[in-house]
Amino acid sequence: MANNRVDAVVGDIIEAVRNVLDKHDVTFPEYRAAVAFLAQYNGAAPYEIPLGLDMFFNATIHDIEMKNRKGSVTALEGPYFRDEAPAVKDRLKVLEGKGEPMIIEGTITDLSGEPLDGAELWIWHSDPDGFYSGFVPYMPEADYYRGVLKTGPDGAYSVRTSVPAPYTIPHDGPSGALLEAMGRHPWRPAHIHFKVRHPKVLDHITQSYFQGGSYVDDDCVEGVRPDLIHTMDERDGVKVLHKDFVLDPA
User: Fold this and answer.
1) Has residue 2 got a pLDDT over 80?
2) Which CATH number fits the domain 44-247, given the four candidates 2.60.130.10, 2.40.170.20, 2.60.120.280, 2.120.10.90?
3) Does this model's pTM top 0.90?
């Protein structure tokens, strides 16, 4: 018998599935129907297998990661990150005349509270209709609602954009069919994505959600955690999201 990490993890997965099959008295026709369903992924879009796995397991990996971190809570990156996002200073490019203005601000420090000078902060989110630039015909270039900025000596940042919207994950393939069969919806709550890089700390990827927002309590990928839900303030008629990052050493 093999004795390595792959064997240990896969062996436990197989054992867990066997226990579930036995617990629910799964019949042979049900088993064959499940095999036929999984075969649909063969001819599906390339993103379907990652999508199907991320729906149920991505957030769990971040929960495991946080067992070994002391800083801010991480969360799933999602499929819409672009490393080549445009450099920005104080505002993201938005579609004029659409959406509600919003300011995102905060500080980036290490565990001791020392500000991180020169930290790179990627911010990206959906437009007011729930779509990401670079992925829809009316925003073919990935430069709307996304950008990367650098902090100064005080570790502070502030950027102006507009409030994002809830949206559905792709659900016209087998992953969506599985959600429907389970009686679940394909909606994600409105959120902001962040990624932070600095030589002194571990890379940090997370999301921020809005208190009272639709689907915050019923996210289809179960990615919302209490520390990621924020109440927005208002300043001169503009919504303000305050998001601080406390990061673990590299």
Assistant:
1) no
2) 2.60.130.10
3) yes
